[in-house]
Amino acid sequence: MSRGVACRDSSNGELAGMKKIQCETCPIESACCVADIPRDQLDQFRALGTSSVYKPRQIVFHEGSPAAGLYFLCHGAVKLYQSGRFGREHILAIDGPGDVLGEIPAEATGTYSASAEALVESQVCYLAREKLEYLVKMHPMVGVRLLGALSDALIAARRKVRDMVLKPADVRLAELLVRFAATGHCENDGTTHVTVPYSRRDIAEMIGVSTETAIRLLAKFKQRGLLAAHGREFVIVDMPKLNRLANSSSYS
Fold it and tell me: 1.10.238.10, 1.10.10.10, 1.10.1040.10, 3.40.50.620: which CATH number matches 167-246?
């Protein structure tokens, strides 16, 4: 998976409020797709791309629009989703810093297979196809790392399809809560507290159910003593039991 990328500033007016990350100070620079570019050549790299800051709920690109380049997520969180026939959104992935957004189809007339929307304030770098091709020719290891990042995304997508088919919704929710818990903090009483930047609708889309079903499942988890939830503040009450559920094939 590639890690943090930063390029030249965009000229749009959406950038106020967030200090941009630069490659030289990026906390994940050593693992990003440009990690092998000598530092004295990073300015050359920055000149090839455009860096923009997106506010929460702002669209990065739309499903079906021309896939003219790749986007790299430097900071924040972006959801990739597809819209169903009746307007319902199906979340394919929640990407974090360093992830690659979009695709480069073999045909230049190809389109993006999904839409991308910022969930929190996010910094994204865009490289057009021809700029990306030039960068890979100049620095072949960028292409190797990029291939690895896209392969990781493909593996994750296949796993998600498998889970949607084979795992019950309550198990998928438990897995999601366990991932949330990894970003939280533990209290002396053994509970784990985490604030999630997602609505109930977002959570429902992540596990492939309706909002109403997600709310019912959360209520069920509360009744079983697994968690307490107050708005976007989640308290994991029984982490061992939640882990057992996340690693099971059904809920008992």
Answer: 1.10.10.10
